[in-house]
């Protein structure tokens, strides 16, 4: 099934410079910025610059360079936030959502990196 990318989504608008953000790090293929509604003391969104809708879409269609850059940038964010276990941090959670059942609010693939406090259970049934 083909993924349909919405060029008007908020992350596409951020990437075009139409909406400001608090950038943490930017590379050729990736942008990481602070979430405007943080759910933990540290909450950064990592997004690819390409038009990918979900994790599986990104994994299936992104170039090797995009995939490597995205993951290395995410690792850099963890180190910059001081949450990486390898840097003496206490840990973090990486979250990605896909579609309605997954709770995806913005139809552009993104990874939430949250940490800085105990985060509790991974899922709750509301």
Low-confidence stretches: none
What is the general shape? globular
For the CA atoms, what is the radius of gyration? 14 Å
Structural class: alpha+beta
Give the assembly state of these chains.
single chain
How many DSSP E strands? Answer: 5
The helical percent reads 25-40%
Count of helical stretches = 4
The string of secondary-structure elements, in order, is HEEEHHEHE
- Determine the N-to-C terminus distance: 30 Å
In what order do the strands lie side by side in the largest sheet? 1-2-3-5-4
What composes the largest sheet?
5 strands, antiparallel
Average pLDDT, all residues: 94
Notes on the structure:
Pfam families: HIT. Residues 10-126 form the HIT domain. A motif (Histidine triad motif) lies at residues 108-112. By secondary structure, the chain is an alpha+beta fold. It has four helices and five strands, in the order H-E-E-E-H-H-E-H-E. The protein has helices at 10-15, 55-61, 64-81, 99-102, and strands spanning 23-26, 30-34, 42-48, 92-95, 111-115. The longest helix is centred in the middle third of the chain and has 18 residues, at 64-81. The mean pLDDT is 94.
Spell out the key features of this protein.
single chain; 126 residues; alpha+beta; five-stranded antiparallel sheet; 28% helix; globular
């Amino acid at each position: 099934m083909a993924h349909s990318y919405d060029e008007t989504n908020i992350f596409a608008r951020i990437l075009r410079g139409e909406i400001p953000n608090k950038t943490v790090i930017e590379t050729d293929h990736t942008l990481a910025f602070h979430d405007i509604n943080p759910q933990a003391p540290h909450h950064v969104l990592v997004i690819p610059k390409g038009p990918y809708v979900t994790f599986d879409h990104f994994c299936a269609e992104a170039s090797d360079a995009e995939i490597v850059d995205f993951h290395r940038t995410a690792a850099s964010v963890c180190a910059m936030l001081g949450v990486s276990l390898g840097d003496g941090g206490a840990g973090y959670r990486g979250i990605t959502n896909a579609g309605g059942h997954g709770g995806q609010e913005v139809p552009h693939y993104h990874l939430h990196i949250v940490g800085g406090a105990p985060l509790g259970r991974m899922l709750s049934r509301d």
